[in-house]
Amino acid sequence: MQDYLSGLNEQQREAVLHVNGPLMIVAGAGSGKTKVLTTRIAHLMANGVDAFNILALTFTNKAAAEMKERIQRILNNSEARNLYIGTFHSVFAKILRAEAHRIGYPNNFTIYDTDDSRSVIKAVINELQMDDKHYKPNIVHNRISAAKNALVGPTEYALDYHLQQEDARANRPAIAQIYAAYAHKCFKNGAMDFDDLLLKMFELLSTQPAALAKYQSKFKYIMIDEYQDTNTVQYQITKLLAAMHENICVVGDDAQSIYSFRGATIENILQFQKDYDDVKVVKLEQNYRSTQSILKVANEVINNNKGQIPKELWTDNKPGDKIKVVRTMTDNEEGKFVADSIKEQQLRNHYANKDFAILYRTNAQSRAYEESLRKMGIAYKIYGGVSFYQRKEVKDMIAYLRIIVNQQDEEALKRIINYPVRGIGKTSIEKLIVVANEQNITMFEAVTRAAEFGFKGGTLEALQNFATMIKYFNTLLNDKNAYDVAVQVGKHTNLVKELFGDKTPEGLARYENVQELLNSIKEWTETPDNFEDGEVGNKGLGAFLQNVSLFTDSDKDKENEDVVKLMTIHAAKGLEFGCVFVGGIEETLFPSAMSINTREELEEERRLFYVAITRAKDRLWLTYANARYRFGQLVQNEPSRFLEEMPEEFLDKTYAGGGARNQGMSNMGTAFERMNRGFGGGSSGQTDLRYGVPPAKKPDNARPSYLQPAAISKPAVTAVHMPSENFVASDTSGLEAGMRVEHQKFGFGTVAKVEGSAHNPIANINFDNNGEKKIMLNYAKLRIL
Ligand code: ATP
Ligand code: MG
Question: Catalytic residue numbers?
Answer without folding.
Answer: 33-34, 225-226, 256, 615
